[in-house]
Design brief:
Elements (H helix, E strand, L loop, with lengths): L3 E4 L1 H5 L10 H10 L5 E3 L7 H13 L4 H10 E5 L5 H5 L1 H16 L12 E8 L17 H21 L3 E6 L2 H11 L4 E3 L6 H10 L2 E4 L11 H10 L5 E3 L21 H12 L3 H16 L4
Parallel strand pairs: 1-2, 2-3, 3-4, 4-5, 5-6, 6-7, 7-8
Length: about 300
Amino acid sequence: MFSDTHFHFEHTTIRDNKEHLINGTEILEQMAERKCFFGLDIGTEANDLLLRQQCIDNAISQMKNTFMADRVRNFIYFSAGIWPSISDIYNRKERMEILKEQIEKAGSSDNDTLHRKIIAIGECGLDHHWNPSGVDGRCESDFDQETYDGERELFEMQLEYGKELNLPVIIHSRDAFEDTLDCIKNVGYNNGIIHCYSYGLEEAKKFLDLGWYISFSGSVTYTKKKKMPEMEELLRYIPEDRILLETDSPYLAPVPLRGTLNTPVNVSHTYEFIAKIRGTSAQDLSALVDTNIVKLFNLTV
């Protein structure tokens, strides 16, 4: 119950300086206890896949209940992709080669205690949200025409790679709707997720018409009162067979936990919020999302 289609486990549990934030084993245990059907650990860097798998391996190894440990191994999956940082944009060809090497190594691993063969490319995409003091440190001044073009090329490279592997692509698109749509149409591959959806109803219709799934995070629970009618209309409009939910942890903790470190366990709050608006139960919405997950990722259950 309460699958999470997008989280960053290592970011949630360990800082860059290796300082531990929360107990990852406890998080996995809680997910297992709730009988989580599916959890997708998301890549953001060309060389992070094997490290992320090892991080989850380490957390599982600390679990005393072997039954629960096996349950975690059964519901954890991985994607691999390159988020458009300035460095990765400038070195995109080199980074793509590293990404492909990581995916090949993971898929050929003799250790089959996790689903090591990746099931999606991403997250990748375009980000034109200018917030120098934010986590991403985006500055408009960094984006001259060469950088814009390079960002689009890095995104299209990954769309092409997803097409080559016949895998869904997980798209990050922030303040870049028209360019995102243009890149998708350039490649002609419509298979995947618009993650942490942040646009309106008309934009959603265009993605849906092409065949994309729409995933909502805890950010929907932040909607201001005057904007709530528009959000409710959007959440009701998304077809049953195209809706997904996520945490994007450690970011975007839903109300009533806003401002705290987010974890996949907190996705239940988002299910409850959206289910109420759609006129259903959180349990029924969870079952619906799980059905969509099986179809999108071509899982054997």
